């Protein structure tokens, strides 16, 4: 039977690897060869490599415990450079040509790990040792203990490079999602697929078939693997069935939503150009069949963690599916009949097997030796198993030479996904395992996941589950004949008297640690988990939890179901962060919104700033300007001196129409709008219902039944949402229609004494001061008939207009304005100059409307109309918001013109103490005013209106600010408003 | 979660913006003698029960309808979804 | 004075990636129609006269030259060729009178036509619409790369029209191109 090759010394006949291909790969720098269809673990085992890693805490030598995604031990670093990925399970990593893997968590080489000293200190490093040991002296924690622990602990390491791969996120919709493509899942898919339903069948493996690929028994006339392949072929031919191999369903979320990670390129050296590495699918399904199978659990005994010791089913999988005999001398340690199935399969492959069965009534065999009522009490072998020490039924001991030892403690149905919606599994004493109980919305469970551990049971259960889920009345497909062996098990969790019997191999938790935790008073299973770390980390205790629960139950004198399980949470297996991010990273983290002048501004060399998602021109540097301040100062002075232009498209705009439009605005603004004449604009302040300012802007009445409302850039969406709330929920019968038109119009502010002269050259109508006075608005035309809007409003305090054209004409309009303004040296200005001019003018903005300020604080208390109801009006009249010494907006200027008056600094009495108790107010906005030649600021100050002229201290102990300032009016420039009316 | 929109059918809750207790629709009469107390209650004293709750959801990435969703905050079961404007009218708002 | 010349939202033209073609369509004039309170019937009559029928919830009427789709309760979007309907809002105002509020929308949207055999695969990694179940005339508002978009299933099985926010035309186009490459 055995076909030894030069390198793959443990490769035997059979299996589903493609021997016509040779895949070269390296592990810890050494070259090996495997075949297509191998995992990294199967290929290493084929090459006689059992030692694949070092354990987390004690740095014990470890090899694979399993042949699947439940693997706790064989975690390696895959690939090199930026694609280096730590903690990858060798048992699921698909082999490809050129694969590079390295072992992790070692100091020195894998076979001589210097940190293995921890294993000698094990009496010291027991459960909770961090909590107990590093308490004193306190300062040592950060400086001494933590760096040492961090260096020694953990598993793999990150590459510290950006992930070069891309990930997608996508959405799928189906009638039936089937999780797992073993016999139950395949049969469910066949039943559902033939009924015409839209089906998704997902399996984490690259080869669908589940255990059928790892077993020798037949289904009907074919081998299980062949039946699986034929079924997959039929399903592939159905247009209504979507097969997702290499896809792990990671979580069951509310109302039939599932998360799934499809590994598109993980089996390739690098993804194809432009192709994602993985896709995170969000699957919407009406119904779900969970056919996730079962996981064999090990038995704990002294030194049960040596490389070569694994679950019995893993030995069977390596032999049957991968054509790998881990060693020629095997032992099986079992408490149930399934262990004997492994022995039978191995024996058939020509491998010598001895079965150690804890049961005195163990089945006999003609083919191999069975030691009934025996237990493995210890093992030997420094870097891998060489001998097992067995205590026979009579108490005498015997040493068995073996380099592979399979343990079978029974099978745990894979109930995880049934518990993601708070479901708790129920105990099945016949199986000595938990089985699903409360199920998530729309889910049925079939096959081994339901506790039907025979193949016949899985096939029938799968068909029935699909039938039930979809409510099919059509006859079921013929269920082929298959083995139907009953489960015979006598629970046995650990060998008594062991000193170092590993329950959780990933977290190095022993039976003794569980006992210690109990002894120290941790009685809840959740506490046990946190204290010992049992069941944590990448495998989430898939092979460990049951053992821990059983020991806990025994110690507490309870039954296992009384102890209960910890809560299973998504994800089922670890998910790369990249998959959650999808395309939303780096430059694509969020969308960019470009203004209509963007291309033009870029041509001018503008410096852009992100505001929300908008890219706004911040300033327009000119040749010779070396600091941003030079540019901004020039832009302000040019605007105030002649004319400037600024893109203000980003302000939110909401079209408000209908017979009740004015009444509606009266409701949402605290000031009155009912009497605003057509052709006029009014400033409006919106309050929240608690009386605090929400947003401000203008409303322009273009017609009796048509207003355009503007909002601040940042609040465009929340204000629109609020307006819809008022419309739909509070005044549902008003005749008012709302629609956001922010992006429909390109809107530019043209400001400065020459603004009218510039616009007269563009606007087709008369815009003289008489025809179009301050706060006028109108539908107009520009450049010979293009529809446009004009608003005579001013944020800068200058004679100013905002002119709007349909967005497609925005680029042409800015160029035309620049042309028309050339004779006045028209100057484009950015958000910085805009900000400077509004501070100079004392206009409130986001810094002042900061969610804590009332109309009173803003100096607009009298704007809140008492003649009508509006949102926030009642609570704005509360006593607490109307005290005499309340904060009021004021201006600040430094006594020494050279001083700065930074935002965030607080105001204190000139001669009083500087502490929080004596805080008088704070600066919200600050800038250098080129108009005045010194810094200025807006601030909120207690009783501010009555303190104009007072000298105070402006302090910020954190940033070292302490300057003398004078309180002044917030209107630094043109307080009478002569310019804007000119 | 899936919210069964009365007009559009089942939609992912990710398309919605949440605003909490549907009592926000019961805006007090500003002219009532106890208006100040009623508004205080309205603005600040909202329920946040573990169990059945009537909530406001805005279909921001959809048809811009405000919905009243009756949802169990423990199990996420949703028993009713109504257009808020219908609810408001049924409550006598105009 | 010289008239102003419009520019397309992006000027991306047409790209074919694998079997998928992405074409910016600057030729659609758009305006929204919202029925005035109590005017649903009157509004519906005008819609019928323009489109042949009133677009039902989640549906478009792919009528020529004007097409229309449902946006929300008592609200529809009407589209027509820009060459003949640049003043679509004024035209509609004339037709609807006081039955509806009309808002010009031409400048608010960028329009991409996506066609090709792999269009459905591309859709699956772009947005949460049940693309394989949609039939001609189905419309869904959805998020594409965080952007609120309308996805309209046009007459041909492999054709969708995407309306996205014009200011983010570049982001949306980038998302479409990357998705097309991903499934190519």
Secondary-structure-based class of chain A equals alpha+beta
Task: Name the structural class of chain C.
Answer: alpha+beta
Assess the beta-strand content of chain A as a share of residues: 25-35%
Return residue spans of chain A where pLDDT drops below 50 for at least 5 consecutive residues: 1-5
CATH superfamily of the largest domain in chain C: Probable tRNA modification gtpase trme, domain 1
User: Could you tell me the number of beta strands of chain A?
Assistant: 50
Radius of gyration of chain C (CA) equals 17 Å
Biggest sheet features of chain A: 7 strands, mixed
CATH class value of the largest domain in chain A: Alpha Beta
Mean pLDDT of chain A: 94
Per CATH, the architecture of the largest domain in chain C is 2-Layer Sandwich
Shape of chain C: globular
- Total count of helical runs of at least 4 residues of chain A: 23
**N-C termini distance of chain A:** 103 Å
- As a percent range, the share of helical residues of chain C equals 25-40%
CATH class of the largest domain in chain C: Alpha Beta
Helical segment count of chain C? 5
Radius of gyration of chain A: 38 Å
State the distance separating the first and last CA atoms of chain C. Answer: 49 Å
Q: Which percent range describes the beta-strand content of chain C?
A: 25-35%
CATH superfamily of the largest domain in chain A: FAD/NAD(P)-binding domain
Q: Care to describe what's here?
A:
The complex is a heterotrimer of chains A (982), B (94) and C (184). By secondary structure, chain A is an alpha+beta fold. Helices cover 21% and strands 27% of the residues of chain A. Chain A has 7 domains: 18-129, 2Fe-2S iron-sulphur cluster binding domain, sarcosine oxidase, alpha subunit, N-terminal domain (Ubiquitin-like (UB roll), Roll), CATH 3.10.20.440; 165-297 and 409-489 and 576-589, 3-Layer(bba) Sandwich (FAD/NAD(P)-binding domain); 328-408, FAD/NAD(P)-binding domain, CATH 3.50.50.60; 502-558; 590-650 and 744-829, Gyrase A, domain 2, CATH 3.30.1360; 651-741, Alpha-Beta Plaits; 884-981, Beta Barrel (Elongation Factor Tu (Ef-tu), domain 3). Chain A is elongated. In chain A, helix 16 crosses helix 21. In chain A, strands 8, 9, 12, 13, 14, 15 and 28 form a 7-stranded mixed β-sheet that branches. Chain A has a 6-stranded mixed β-sheet with strand order 41-42-43-40-34-44. Chain A has 23 helices and 50 strands. The longest helix of chain A is centred in the middle third of the chain and has 16 residues, at 455-470. With 94 residues, chain B is of the alpha+beta class. Chain B has a single domain, classed as Folate-binding superfamily (Folate-binding fold). In chain B, the strands form 2 sheets. A 4-stranded antiparallel β-sheet of chain B has the order 3-4-5-6. Chain B has a two-stranded antiparallel ribbon with strand order 1-2. The mean pLDDT of chain B is 96. By secondary structure, chain C is α+β, with helices and mostly antiparallel strands. Chain C has 2 domains: 15-26 and 108-183, Probable tRNA modification gtpase trme, domain 1 (Gyrase A, domain 2); 28-104, 2-Layer Sandwich (Alpha-Beta Plaits). In chain C, 25% of the residues lie in helices and 35% in strands. Chain C has 5 helices and 11 strands, in the order βββαβββααββαβββα. In chain C, strands 1-2-8-11-10-9 form a 6-stranded antiparallel β-sheet, covered by helices on one side. In chain C, strand 1 (14-17) and strand 2 (20-24) form a beta hairpin. The mean pLDDT of chain C is 96. At the A-C interface, strand 8, strand 15, strand 31 and helix 20 of A face strand 3, strand 7 and helix 5 of C.
